[in-house]
Design goal:
The protein has about 240 residues and is α/β, with parallel strands linked by helices. Helix content is about 30%, strand content about 30%. The protein is built from seven helices and twelve strands. The protein starts with a strand and ends with a strand. The relative contact order is 0.18.
């Protein structure tokens, strides 16, 4: 099991009040699964993503990521685990404007202590995989929205993470560009990457193996009902139980 959450609880103290963002949440995600997280604003989706990505700690409960007890780690250990095992893709891309496309992709490798020749080789390999090798010297403001999201995906994959997290990855894109990004995610899934996406878009959720719906900090429903048939065109699905 890549992700194992047991009775996970996250409480924020705001002034004199207590806000329960996650309330005794249980969730397991095997390696290689493609999961989408849905739910209304305030349901706990973002808090869950921050905890999954080791950007925050639970108030109580247990989180095991690839065999590691996350809640027991010190800050430096948590940062190391995040850098080694988790990749992030954000709605707003979060690229650094002053850096080239290649330099943006290399950033996680810089933090990991990878030597410059290997960083450049890996960035070129990843940009080629997302169809942007010819754009590696450009700055982010010279790219389209879809191209910037592809750069963000390449950067997220730099350290070969076991878990790829994406928060509304098509939210700032038109439908045609968003479709291209979802096809890229599906290719990554077919290659064995574990994907967890937060989305409000039912069309995005249809690409996944499993849909987890949240409400009031808990899992309201957890459904594995759709898988894309091999070779099926967009919109063609089969029910699998």
């Amino acid at each position: 099991m890549l992700i194992d959450l047991q009775a996970l609880r996250r409480v924020y103290h705001m002034g004199g009040s207590e806000v329960v963002a996650l309330d005794e949440l249980d969730l397991q995600i095997p390696a290689g699964e493609f999961v989408t997280i849905m739910g209304p604003s305030g349901s706990g989706k973002s808090t869950l993503m921050h905890l999954l990505g080791c950007l925050d700690r639970p108030t109580a409960g247990r989180y095991v990521l690839d065999g590691v007890e996350v809640q027991a780690l010190q800050d430096l250990e948590l940062s190391r685990l995040r850098n080694q095992k988790v990749g992030f893709v954000f709605q707003s891309f979060n690229l650094i404007a002053q850096l080239s496309v290649s330099e943006n992709v290399q950033l996680p490798l810089v933090y990991a202590g990878v030597r410059p020749p290997e960083r450049r080789r890996r960035a070129q390999e990843l940009l080629d995989a997302v169809g942007l090798c010819q754009r590696q010297a450009h700055r982010p403001n010279e790219l389209s929205g879809g191209e910037r999201q592809r750069v963000a995906i390449a950067r997220a994959l730099a350290n070969r993470p076991k878990l790829l997290l994406a928060d509304e990855p098509t939210g700032n894109l038109d439908s045609k560009t968003g479709l291209g990004i979802m096809k890229l995610f599906e290719e990554l899934h077919q290659d064995g990457t574990t994907l967890v996406l937060v989305t409000h878009d039912p069309g995005v959720a249809e690409w996944s193996d499993r849909v987890v719906r949240m409400l009031d900090g808990r899992v309201e429903s957890d459904t594995s009902v759709r898988l894309r048939e091999a070779g099926a065109s967009s919109g063609e699905w089969r029910e699998v139980g």
